[in-house]
Structure formats: structure tokens, C-alpha cells
Amino acid sequence: xxxxxxxxxxxxxxxxxxxxxxxxxxxxxxxxxxxxxxxxxxxxxxxxxxxxxxxxxxxxxxxxxxxxxxxxxxxxxxxxxxxxxxxxxxxxxxxxxxxxxxxxxxxxxxxxxxxxxxxxxxxxxxxxxxxxxxxxxxxxxxxxxxxxxxxxxxxxxxxxxxxxxxxxxxxxxxxxxxxxxxxxxxxxxxxxxxxxxxxxxxxxxxxxxxxxxxxxxxxxxxxxxxxxxxxxxxxxxxxxxxxxxxxxxxxxxxxxxxxxxxxxxxxxxxxxxxxxxxxxxxxxxxxxxxxxxxxxxxxxxxxxxxxxxxxxxx
Length: 314
What we know:
With 314 residues, the chain is α/β, with parallel strands linked by helices. It has helices at 2-13, 28-39, 82-93, 115-126, 185-191, 203-213, 235-253, 256-276, 290-306, and strands at residues 18-24, 47-52, 73-76, 101-106, 109-111, 130-138, 145-147, 150-152, 159-161, 170-172, 180-184, 217-228. The longest helix has 21 residues, at 256-276. The model is unreliable at 279-286 (pLDDT under 50).
């Protein structure tokens, strides 16, 4: 039965070329799991590009982690470009490749063996443009759903990761998690890539909201699943970028009156998060002292209201 399913998925993919793109942040163990997950996938990408995002040289031989017929291509940036900047940087290197779909992964995401095949099948069966996200489970607690999509409140601009199992195989969402996205090339060319001014956090939601305004559906496929390590970055850095970038996101997606109404709610959400922030993994960056997180919150709020972007002091 499994062999038949794999054959069906390969037949669907025959005339569709998939580019897998992994944004690495100097986590060799995570990257190893990510690449091996792709190797064990029932449906494999036609190209695998990996960005070493300003981390520097690494002795590990990536080709040994992906012993298939496709050799991983690793590209190193001179500086940390952030998630969005890293994606755009790699897109600049693959313009001449004839890919149809982009399978975007963070290095701390591990795909289930049937994930990519399910995403291809869903996209082909839809018959129209859409951005797809898989169901995201926690890597260390796979019974827990980390994200079944993202909801955005149009008035307060509260942003929530949804954790319930979707009732249908395909469900519509405001946005999907950037840890894993499946995007047709036509959408990338229409929207022009991600906004690198965010540096980190909310660029995935910004991309989805921009797509929605262009009439493109944002969907989660329940049968496609990814396991996400996550939780490594905590403390003042996360507080700063989350606060600043949520304000930026609201400014870009609301009129002036709407933003004035939503801004106090956004500040309240982020202040509360900075007071209670917890670290999922003991090996993560840590929460930092309370005064450091509060300092980061006020800097993020000030910079967000002033419209500052890019890589901040944190």
C-alpha cells in the first residue's frame, strides 16, 4: 500500500519540479535532521539549496547527509540576512532553474515522509494558485500541534497560532508558519519575495497577508506534517523583534485609524508576553532577566512606532 501511494505521488510530480530551500542558522544537529528528513521523504525535491546564513565555515560534509542523486548546494552569506533576507538571497541564485514549486524549510523543521507528496497532490488537485502550509507538530512532543495555521484579528491585530486539529483535510487560514511553506513559483514572481526589512519574525505572516490581498488562498493541509524543534530563541532578542515587527505588520496592513486603535492592544500583548515568556528547551537562548526583557520591549515599541527596520541592536 505504501509503495502504491509513493508511486501515485511520483506520478503527480512527473512534470512538476520542486526546489527545496533550507535556511540554516548555525545549528548543525538541527540541519542534519532536516536534510535526512528530506532524504527519507517519499517524494524528493529536484534541487536542494541550503543557506548558511552568515554563520561561517562548517566542516560537515552535507553531501553525506543526502546520499541521493541530487547533491545539496550550500551557499554562504557574508552576514546574517535574517529569514526573509536569506530566502530572497537564495532566490537570486536559482532564477535560471526551471522549478515550479518552492518548499521552504527552517533548519529546525523535520518533514514527515509523506509531507511533500501530500503538498504536491493537494496543490495539483486544487487547480489554482495557493500557498500551502503543513500541520506543524512539536518535535520533542509530537502529539502536540504547534501550529495548524495562524489567525489574525482584523481589529486588534492579535496574532494567534492555532493548535487544534483541523476538521477538514484542507482549511483556510490568514497565514501559515514560515518554518515550512509550499509556494508555487508563479506566486513568488507575482509578489516579489519576502520583505527583508523584518529581519526575523512576522515576515511569513506579511507574505501571506500580501498574497491574500492579491486574491491568493492561504491553506493548511492536514495530511502534510512537519515536526518543528522551535523554541531556541528566547529572551530580549525575541521580545524586541516581536514587538517591533508586529507594529510594522499592522502599519502595513491597516489604515491609519485602524492602526491607532490596534497599537495599544499590540503593545499590551507583547508586554504581557515579555513578562511571562518561557523557554521550551533547556538548551535554548534563555529568557534573560526580567529587566532585560522589559528594556527590549520598550526599545522594540519605540523602534516599531518610529518605523525602524532591519537588523536591530539586539
